[in-house]
Every structure is written in C-alpha cells, then in structure tokens.
Write a structure and sequence with these properties.
549 residues; alpha/beta; 7-stranded mixed sheet; two-stranded antiparallel sheet; 57% helix
Length: 549
C-alpha cells in the first residue's frame, strides 16, 4: 500500500542529533512548539470544534493528560495524523525536547501498515478520526507509561537547555563588557571579563557533555522499548479499525446508502456512534457482514435460475435456445460448415427468452422471538437475519417490517417503507415514529426476555399484509418467523390465518433455533417450510429462506 504522508526533511532524528544541533547552532528553543505534526490555524480550529462536540474525545484527552504532561498535545497529534490528507512530521529541531517523546511515538505510528488501514476510514472525516483517538487512548496510556523514564529525562534535558541559554546570555554580557573595557583602555578590567567568559564557557562545555550523555540515555531507552511501543500501537490501531469497520458495516446494516452515516451532521453521528459503540452491536455487525453476502448471493442465484418463456426470435449462438430448423443440414459437410460459420458470427436464429418469475410486491415481515431463552448469541444472530432480510427487501423495492414479540400482546414493530418515486425510510416502534437510524438502533436494542406467544406477532403481520393488499393490491408477501420454542395456538385462529394466507397469497417461512423442523404448530403455520438452526455463527442454514423471499 502506498503511503500518503511524508516525514520532514530532517528524518526521524534522535535526541542526540537534536542536542548536537542545538549545541552547534546555539539557537534558543521555541517554547510554543509542542505539536509534532504540521498544522495550521484551520486544522486547530477543526480539532477544537470536534473536541467541544465530542465529550468522549475531550475525556480521552483529559485521561491521557493525567498520565503524561504532554498528553493533550499527543492526542492532538494523533488526530491530525489520522484526519489530514498528508500529515507531515516536524523536524525534531523545531520541537521542545519534552515533546520529542510525542514525536517518537508519532514517528513509530506513521510507519505501521495498521496506520494506513485505519486512515482508510479517518482521512477527511473528523468524527471518525476523533472516535479512533478515543478508542486508542488506553493503549496510548500504556505506551507513555513505557516511556515514562525517557519523558522525565527529556524534561531534565529541557531544564539543562534553559540553563545553557542562561549561561549563553551571561557569556554575551561578559563579552560586551570586555569590549567596552578595551575601548576605554582598561586592559585589566577587560581581562577580568575575559576570564569570566572563559569560566562560563568551561561550564557550558561541561553542561553540553552532560546533555549529550543524557540524550544518549534517552535514545537508548526509547530503542529498548520500541518493540513494545510498536506492538501497543498496532493493537491500538487495530482496535480503532475494528470499531470503524463495525460502524461502516452497521451503516449498511441499518439500510442506509453506502456512506450515509458519514453524511450526517457531526453531532448526530456522534450521538449514533455512542449508541453503536458496544459489544452487542459489534457482534451484530460481525454476523451481518457475511450473512448479508449470503443473502445477496442467493437473490442473484434466484434471478439467474428463473424460469423462462419464449416471446420472440433473435440472432445469436446460445445453443440451448437455437431453433430446430438451424439443425437441418448438419448431416452434410457444407451444412455443418454453414452452421459453424453462423455460430461464430452469432447469426443463428434462436428463441428470445425472458423470465416468467414475478418479483413479489408484498412486504417482507420478520417476526423475532424475544423470549428469555432467545437471549445472548441467539438474539444477536436473529437480529443479523432480520437486518439481512431488510437488505433483501430494499433490493427488491419492497416494504419491510420487523416484529419483536414476547408474551401475549407484547410486541414492537419496525417498518421500512418504499415509495413509488423515492425511498421513504421510516421506522416505528409500536405507535412512535423514529428517526431512521435511531429506529434501527431501537430495533436492535429491543428484547423482552419473557414468555412466548405466536398469535400476537402473526396477527400483526396478517393485518399489515391485509392493509397493504387493500391499499396497493400487492400480493405474494413473505413472513419469516424465527423462534426457539413451541407455543400452542387456537384451532379457530389457525384456520382463519391459513384462509387469509390463501386469499392474500403470501408465504410463511419458519426458523427454529436449536429445535426440530417438525415442531407444531410452526410446521403447519409455515406449510412445512421450516429450517432448523444448529450453528448460529453464520447464515448458511437460512440460505433457502434468503433465496425464497
């Protein structure tokens, strides 16, 4: 992967090189130079803006500052390193010694492939860069803990440099006085100041050696812990990349267009990111990715294997559809040569085919069992199935409804409705209408944890399909019913349900988690279309359902 950043012309540098250059040039420190990544006024304004909006970033910066005095600036450096298109390290001689430890950390970070991978999410995206910094903060604490001795020595070195600058000032004053004495003919007075200047220079030379020795110790200490620093930084960036990838996957899982989350205002993205930044949503994202790919693959397979009908004649070379008349004459050599000539030139008469499978226009309804036994991994898996079915509905331009159900009359609904000219996305929980993403999050958060009642969710689903049929004349809807248990239903209700099913022409698919496909009444409700789920680590067991809806 090509790098899109550059080091400063001074290279990575070392503390010894810094000190040698300082001694040689004799140039005073710039007390304001704390950041190690080049930034301008607008960069800093952007950082302060996201810092004020993102409480988590402000807290993370504060926590790092508690660990190390240069922590606030180290966090700002990391943010610039992630968000800027071409972050550039400052030359070491432009930075205060105390902050050169920050530079060593950033220099190590910028050399890692994990840094490049994380920047795929963060470049130009202030919220993503801020969230990555928040995620990395604990590892940054560990890194600066490992560099604590070097940090103390860097502070000591800075004190020495300040002392050196004081001596340089005294030496300059002595030289000035010596020149004045010589101008006035006072050779004895001039000699005194010359002796004073020599003593100061002797002290400066001694201090310079001490500074060089201390710089060597700092460099050696940094080199000793560099493998540990590198490993911690890798872990920090991997964690941040995982979070960014989960948010990116969840962006798609909640039915938004690719990159839809990134187009939201910063404060809304931050609010949503807070809600999504937990173990449950990360596990849903991990399952949704491969499961949605299975769903899309099965949809494609369904299209490719659709039944065909003849509706015209065309020229081509598709042998299965070539007209029988073209085969006449194949018995003699000239006829065979003519056939192959027409085959190569795609000039054979063949039937023009089109699919006769009609794409269902009714909605897809997913009923998810929210009883206590469906908690944990089963709940996460079921929600990944529901979100994958929502993607199928979106692909087919169909309505989607998710129904969470528990005991009698205990349910919440989640709707995704397609308009004729544009997608109208709205999510509902019972009677309340939610913002698109908030509603989807509400969907994933909902879990009753009580008993089980099949009648309530199936009655709600039936009412939805009936209303859709009455309003739009839509038929061929699908209900997918996911449960891990058995529940009795009244005979009269079941008879009415099947009668309405025949009228509205919809299918019911069953998913029994850890149970038998012959479980009743699920088998009858689903017309024997029930799959049993033994492995909740993937979506392989529900391929047929993804293909059928």
């Amino acid at each position: 992967m090509g790098r899109n950043f550059k080091h400063s012309e001074g290279g990575p540098g070392s503390m010894r090189e810094y000190v040698d250059n300082y001694i040689k040039k004799g140039r005073p420190m710039d007390p304001e130079t704390k950041n190690t990544i080049h930034s301008d006024q607008w960069d800093r304004e952007d950082y302060n803006s996201i810092l004020s909006e993102m409480e988590e970033l402000s807290n993370a910066e504060g926590e790092l500052y508690k660990h190390v005095e240069t922590g606030s600036d180290a966090m700002e450096d990391m943010y610039f390193g992630l968000v800027k298109a071409m972050p550039e390290l400052k030359d070491p001689k432009e930075i205060r010694p105390t902050y050169l430890i920050n530079r060593a950390v950033m220099d190590e970070a910028l050399t890692l492939k994990e840094y490049d991978e994380l920047r795929l999410y963060s470049v130009g995206d202030d919220v993503s860069a801020g969230l990555s910094c928040v995620t990395m903060e604990p590892e940054l604490e560990t890194i600066f803990d490992k560099l604590a001795k070097q940090q103390e020595k860097a502070q000591e070195l800075e004190q020495m440099m300040m002392q050196m600058e004081g001596m340089a000032g005294e030496s300059g004053d002595a030289d000035q006085m010596m020149q004045e004495m010589l101008a006035n003919g006072d050779e004895k007075g001039a000699q005194n100041y010359q002796d004073q200047k020599a003593r100061i220079q002797e002290q400066m030379d001694k201090l310079a050696k001490e500074m060089q020795k201390l710089a060597d110790q700092i460099d050696s200490g940094i080199e000793d812990v560099k493998p540990e620093v590198r490993e911690e930084m890798r872990q920090a960036m991997n964690n941040a990349s995982d979070q960014a990838d989960n948010l990116d996957t969840l962006d798609n899982a909640w039915g938004m267009d690719q990159g839809g989350l990134s187009r939201l205002p910063a404060h809304k993205r931050i609010e949503l990111a807070r809600k999504l930044n937990n173990d449950k949503f990360r596990r849903i994202a991990q399952l949704f990715g491969p499961m949605s790919r299975i769903a899309m693959a099965e949809q494609q397979r369904k299209v490719n294997t659709a039944r065909q009908e003849i509706y015209d004649i065309e020229l081509g070379n598709n042998l299965p559809t070539v007209l029988p008349i073209e085969m006449i004459g194949m018995e003699d050599e000239m006829g065979a040569l003519l056939f192959f000539k027409n085959y190569i030139e795609m000039g054979l008469m063949q039937y023009k085919m089109r699919g006769t499978e009609k794409v269902a226009k009714g909605g897809i309804i997913f009923c998810e069992d929210g009883s206590g036994s469906m908690g944990g991994d089963r709940e996460v898996w079921a929600k990944a199935v529901g979100l994958s079915l929502m993607q199928v509905a979106k692909l087919q331009n169909r309505d989607f409804m998710g129904i969470h159900f528990g005991g009698p009359a205990e349910y919440k609904t989640f709707e995704y409705t397609h308009g004729k000219d544009e997608v109208i996305a709205k999510y509902k929980a019972t009677t309340e209408t939610f913002d698109f993403m908030n509603g989807a999050i509400e969907y994933a958060e909902t879990f009753f944890g009580g008993g089980t009642d099949f009648v309530t969710p199936l009655t709600v689903a039936l009412e939805k399909l009936q209303k859709q049929h009455d309003e739009d004349g839509a038929v061929k809807g699908d209900i997918v019913f996911c449960t891990d248990g058995m529940c009795g239903v009244p005979d009269e209700w079941l008879a009415n349900f099947k009668e309405t099913q025949e009228e509205l022409d919809f299918k019911v698919y069953g998913i029994i988690v850890g149970g038998s496909t012959n479980s009743e009444p699920l088998k009858t409700i689903c017309d024997n279309r029930v799959c049993s789920i033994q492995d909740i680590a993937s979506g392989e067991d529900v391929r047929e359902i993804f293909r059928g809806v």
